[in-house]
Amino acid sequence: MDLTAGQTYKLQLSGGGPSASLSWATPTDLAPGIAQAVAAAKSAATAVVVVSDDTESEAADRVGLSLPSAQNELISAVAAANPHTVVVVDAGAPVAMPWLSQVSSVLDAWYPGESNGTALAAVLFGKTGPGGHLPVTFPADLSQVARVTPSQFPGTSGQWQYSEGVDVGYRSYDANSETPLFPFGYGLSYTTFAFGS
Prior knowledge:
This protein has 197 residues and is α/β, with parallel strands linked by helices. It has 4 helices and 3 strands, in the order αβαββαα. The chain has helices at residues 27-42, 71-81, 116-124, 170-175; strands at 47-52, 85-90, 105-108. It has a 3-stranded parallel β-sheet with strand order 1-2-3. Helix 2 (71-81) links the parallel strand 1 and strand 2 (85-90).
């Protein structure tokens, strides 16, 4: 969100619960970290940028698919400094990837748990292949995300309408003849496979 210096803004928080939080930083606060990352990327053979979406929980859904804070800006800046940039995404759902064409690869680690570092190193250094497949579909554009009415989400009077029928998830892409960024079940490996006789 862009704010104008000297202007007063009213901020209202509602809902929430035990997992709700409000975090913010000015561009000036974020810039030094990005500058340091760019400097490191320029001198590296390969740059690895690990980003996460910590805005979701079991108690609340995310409000959108964008990575929080200045993470998209960080990725774009590092990728501009090093064409061999690998992005590792720790998130429990699809994220928008406006920088995808700027990076050499993306590894979606989901929420890997307390052995994250060990598992990630094994994949990045080729000891273990990234053999997973996506359990959801990633939209190519935010316009592909299902459009909902207030009666569908967040619901009215405690009632939710599932009026889309069976055309949810990957089925909505098929029903609307849309090509997603990454379809349900997508996943690559370090090898190639072929059928033979």
